[in-house]
Specification:
The complex is a heterodimer of chains A (312) and B (507). Chain A is an alpha/beta fold and 312 residues long. Chain A is built from 13 helices and 5 strands. Chain A has one domain: Rossmann fold (3-Layer(aba) Sandwich). The longest helix of chain A is centred in the N-terminal third of the chain and has 23 residues. Chain B starts with 5 loop residues before the first helix and ends in a 17-residue tail after the last helix. The chains are: A alpha/beta (312), B mainly alpha (507).
């Protein structure tokens, strides 16, 4: 009896601690105390945005968040966009992110960077996600646990709607890596299935899916271009392979890459963003939000971005 | 479903615990067997037929050896049966695991362009095959009697906690515990939970957290230099240790719940003072297996005995020992490398330790003479510290080779350490530009410190984990709360992280 009582008290104290921590780390509490910053998960980050104001989101892995700069889309066209790319993201990670976005946003364009389609995805099992969801409801601390980092981070600077500025130049030669071939490097089958699910989700939510491949000597070649072109045709979606559009975009690998041709730095990202902005402007009807209620906070963000661009 | 998933902890393990407890002790082993089959099939589905085939081969070989020994007892016949048995087991392993590798190798060398279909490999095949081979050899050497109930042998080979990452068990060590059907008690639950908690701490706070950085380091162009390479190589070693040892803690904890004590697979490996000692502390059960079933049979073979006799008189005791060790260690480390998987880097990893160990044996007398000459005692602090540091360097280089994507990447990274840019961008914050924030690195570092403190305690008191429940309530609860809260708050799980796949599960 004594042992049972002791165990009950132990678990009771544990539950109180965990519930308390869940409250302290919840986005609501953190917003109130202005402690939200860049390293939190995407749901927490996006919860900070005015609901249903983001018109363009960028999905993918590191190739996505190093190639599209939302502040520049805002500056040039007044487009409210958000870069939701994640480090080493797999297709199921990306699907989760898109689902999280849809909880308080309804973007009209989903720009999907294609590199993750070639990354093996140790697909998380449905049952595992189901259990996670239940645990998030019972113990919110399991969902918001990572928000502790915000207590140690500058809450204002350095994060521009999913984009961070990298001035680093780690150059490589402008070699010819997109050599024309009939070979086709197909995307991983499981990934294609997940992409179809994302496409379905886009359709259900009135969004246009646009596939794009950011500049990367390390990750792209013509066989991959053929593989990606094939699935774009099958899904009947647009596909922009920036690696083949260098006459227009003019990426210079001696100045525009941060890590020898793998990812772009801010100079490369500016060029890519300029191309994408023009492409969206020419082909889609996206609202210019510079005269809406979000303009003030977005302009402030742009000012900070411009300052950081100048102050290397 | 791996050991670090929600399904395992929230569904699978609790269901097995309940079923095991409510069933009569006579049939409890049967619950474990069914659970193990379900566990296997949840991961590898119908590939379980390969495991069944291995069980049938091991069972039949052992029974025939036993029967022939009782009837004819002809050495050659027994040896022939044993060889057929273990060759069949190894043929299945080789066929499933190494066919793709062989084709790739042939294609890369000869440019023949042979086409082949990728073969699906059942989970834990390398682990259960070694157990099955060990079982047949133990019966052949009359260390144990052949098991007459094939279902019991199936449980030994398929026991779910050991299936994915070991430890590699011997039938004589685990059979009594597996079939005893001892009831689960509050004590066994507590002991199991403590080990599982400690395993999760290592995995989720260190291994899973470092995952992004380690992947970034190896999966991008190998252009890192100087200190960045050194730090990442050290972190690679620590991540591998936290992942593997952490999973083994979960495995041992899961078995402890059912009152089954599995052999330890790690014994504070970073306290080793030589590469040989390191391998007595790291992946212990693999080392024991290779020693028992490869090293000893080679050293005690007639050919090697003859050589010993011949050489001692001619080249002296020390050189005879060096040559004999070289002969016996070569197959051990070739098998060790190949066992880890069909990758050139793994074979190189095996050969790396083969060379290091032979050198250690060869220079042992010279080393002793050196310490004597400089008037330093071998059991003194300085000599111990030098040996410890030397061993760390050997381990870190070895683990970088193990983790590298290719030999050329490994060579490039090693060469990059010695560039003019020794800082490698460290001071410019390059390390926090590799997928982890400063906070992540701080938490990983904190976890590593705790891991080493606990290792130091266990080194002095090997029964440390068993003594936790005997501490005063305040101390005990503080430890429990600390570990649980650390895992819940600082564990690398959820949207922002990708957990590490069980690295050794692929072997």
């Amino acid at each position: 009896m004594k042992k049972i009582l002791s165990a009950t008290i132990f678990f009771l104290i544990l539950i109180i601690i965990l519930v308390g921590l869940g409250f302290l780390l919840s986005p609501n509490y953190l917003f109130k105390n202005q402690m939200v910053n860049k390293k939190s998960d995407i749901s927490t980050k996006l919860a900070k945005e005015e609901p249903y104001t983001i018109d363009i989101i960028v999905l993918g892995d590191s190739e996505s968040y190093t190639s599209i700069s939302p502040p520049e889309l805002w500056r040039d066209y007044g487009y409210a966009s958000y870069n939701c790319g994640g480090i080493g993201a797999t297709l199921t990670d990306i699907q989760d992110v898109y689902q999280a976005v849809l909880s308080n946003q309804q973007p009209k364009i989903v720009l999907f960077e294609t590199n993750a389609l070639y990354r093996v995805d140790g697909r998380r099992k449905e049952a595992d996600n189901f259990i996670s969801d239940i645990m998030h409801k019972i113990l919110p601390v399991t969902k918001y646990h990572d928000n502790w980092k915000m207590l140690f981070q500058d809450t204002r600077k350095g994060y521009y709607k999913g984009f961070t500025i990298s001035h680093t130049i780690d150059p490589c030669d402008n070699k010819e890596y997109m050599i024309m071939t009939d070979d086709v490097e197909n995307v991983i089958n499981d990934n294609y299935d997940t992409l179809k699910d994302i496409y379905k989700l886009c359709k259900e939510n009135g969004a246009s899916l646009v596939l794009y491949s950011a500049h990367s000597q390390t990750n792209y070649n013509y066989a991959k271009h053929n593989g990606l072109n094939k699935i774009a045709k099958e899904l009947n979606v647009d596909y922009i392979d920036m690696n083949l559009l260098n006459d227009d975009i003019k990426i210079d690998y001696t100045t525009d890459t941060r890590d020898r041709g793998d990812h772009l730095n801010v100079y490369g990202a500016s060029k890519s963003t300029a191309y994408i902005g023009k492409y969206i402007n020419d082909n889609y009807n996206i609202t210019d939000r510079r005269n809406t209620n979000i303009a003030k906070s977005w302009d402030e963000m742009l000012d900070e971005y411009n300052k950081e661009l100048i102050n290397k | 479903m791996a050991y670090n998933t929600n399904v395992y902890f929230v569904l699978f393990l609790p269901i097995v615990i309940i079923l095991y407890q409510i069933i009569s002790s006579r049939f409890r082993w049967f619950v474990l067997l069914i659970s193990s089959i379900v566990f296997f099939m949840l991961i590898s589905k119908w590939l379980i037929v390969w495991a069944f085939l291995a069980i049938i081969i091991a069972y039949t070989s052992a029974r025939v050896i036993e029967y022939k020994r009782e009837t004819t007892n002809k050495y050659k016949t027994l040896k022939c049966i044993m060889l057929v048995g273990i060759c069949s087991l190894i043929a299945i392993l080789a066929g499933l695991k190494y066919t793709n590798f062989a084709f790739e190798l042939i294609n890369s060398i000869t440019d023949t362009g042979l086409s082949f279909e990728s073969i699906a490999v059942p989970i834990g095949i390398s682990f259960y095959t070694l157990q099955a081979v060990g079982y047949v050899l133990d019966v052949y050497w009359e260390r144990i009697d052949a098991e007459h109930n094939i279902l019991r042998l199936s449980l030994f080979i398929l026991f779910f906690p050991t299936l994915m990452e070991g430890p590699i068990c011997r039938y004589s060590d685990t059979k009594d515990q597996l079939f005893e059907g001892k009831p689960i008690t509050a004590r066994s639950l507590r002991q199991g939970a403590i080990r599982i908690g400690w395993g999760l701490f290592k995995r989720m706070i260190i291994a899973d957290r470092l995952n992004a950085l380690i992947n970034y380091f190896y999966l991008t162009d190998p252009h890192y230099e100087g200190m960045i390479v050194i730090i990442c190589a050290i972190l690679t070693t620590l991540q591998l240790y936290a992942e593997f040892a952490g999973t083994i803690d979960i495995v041992i904890g899961s078995a402890l719940i059912f009152n089954i004590k599995l052999p330890e697979n790690f014994r504070q490996p970073f306290m080793a003072k030589s590469a040989a000692e390191f391998w007595r502390r790291w992946h212990i059960t693999l080392g024991v297996w290779l020693k028992s079933y490869v090293f000893y049979p080679v050293t005690t073979s007639r050919l090697v005995k003859k050589w010993n006799k011949f050489a001692r008189k001619r080249i002296g005791k020390h050189f005879t020992k060096v040559v004999t060790s070289t002969i016996a260690l070569f197959p051990v480390w070739l098998i060790n490398g190949l066992w880890h998987g069909p990758k050139v880097t793994y074979i190189a990893y095996g050969m790396y330790y083969f060379i290091i160990l032979v050198l250690e044996i060869a220079f042992e007398p010279a080393g002793k003479a050196f310490w004597k000459k400089v008037h330093l005692r071998e059991d003194g602090f300085i000599v111990k510290a030098v040996r410890l540091f030397r061993t760390w360097i050997i381990i870190v280089i070895g683990e970088m080779l193990f983790r590298a994507e290719s030999i050329s990447q490994f060579i490039k990274l090693c060469a990059n350490i010695f560039t003019s840019n020794f800082d490698g961008g460290l001071m410019k914050g390059k390390l926090v530009d590799m997928g982890l924030s400063v906070e992540d690195l701080f938490v990983a570092l904190f976890g590593i410190v705790i891991m080493f403190v606990v290792d130091a305690i266990v080194e002095k008191r090997p029964d440390f984990f068993e003594t936790i429940p005997t501490l005063s309530r305040t101390k005990r609860w503080l430890i429990y709360y600390f570990v649980i809260i650390m895992i819940v708050i600082f564990g690398a799980y959820g949207e922002a992280y990708k957990t590490v796949e069980l690295i050794y599960a692929n072997f």
